């Protein structure tokens, strides 16, 4: 099974970003940072989704992110599927916080249960086939709208680019480097939408 070991964000200020993802969000070695290379504008085509057990934990994570300089793109609120909100940290990466539960079952923490890399792609079916051919195991699939892979420490999902941008509350247009590099054990390659993988 092909898995994702960690993600590397390419940012303008690695020292500040490292503190944000490690100290504020508690993501440890799953998210690393390094200096940005190629320039980019607009939506980078991906979001990081932090999944928590209950709404109060989502609120605590959002509050900690905002205190550390993040900008709220969508305030945390209830929805049909659960509870969540969206922020943009100082480095510009879009981070969503989500819980499938609409009610608290215990005291609030800042515990992140799952980290999900959501890629916005032009053709979900074609990208699904590309990744399946590389050995990724499909966990969930909803036609040409959404695919989730079983990729270990970091879950990978494929979404329509415009749909992902809408959920994040941003314009879908963007160009240049994506600003994220995916580290796995399957070698170095670039997917159909330009997302770069490197050997972990």
CATH homologous superfamily descriptor: 2,3-Dihydroxybiphenyl 1,2-Dioxygenase, domain 1
How much helical structure, as a percent, in the residues? 10-25%
Low-pLDDT stretches: none
Distance between the termini: 14 Å
Largest sheet, in brief, is: 8 strands, mixed
| Secondary-structure element order, N to C | EHEEEHEEEEHEEEHEEEE
Can I get a quick summary?
By secondary structure, the chain is α/β, with parallel strands linked by helices. The chain has helices at residues 14-24, 55-67, 124-133, 161-168, and strands at residues 4-11, 31-35, 40-42, 46-51, 71-78, 83-88, 95-99, 114-121, 137-142, 146-150, 155-160, 174-176, 180-184, 189-190, 196-199. It has an eight-stranded mixed beta sheet with strand order 5-6-7-4-8-11-10-9. A five-stranded mixed beta sheet has the order 2-1-13-15-14. A two-stranded antiparallel ribbon has the order 3-12.
Describe the structure.
This protein is an alpha/beta fold. Helix content is 21%, strand content 40%. An eight-stranded mixed beta sheet has the order 5-6-7-4-8-11-10-9. Strands 2-1-13-15-14 form a five-stranded mixed beta sheet. The chain has a two-stranded antiparallel ribbon with strand order 3-12. The protein is globular, with a radius of gyration of 16 Å. 36% of the residues are buried. The mean pLDDT is 95.
Annotate the secondary structure layout.
Blueprint: E1 4-11, H1 14-24, E2 31-35, E3 40-42, E4 46-51, H2 55-67, E5 71-78, E6 83-88, E7 95-99, E8 114-121, H3 124-133, E9 137-142, E10 146-150, E11 155-160, H4 161-168, E12 174-176, E13 180-184, E14 189-190, E15 196-199
Parallel strand pairs: 1-2, 4-7, 8-11, 13-15
Antiparallel strand pairs: 1-13, 3-12, 4-8, 5-6, 6-7, 9-10, 10-11, 14-15
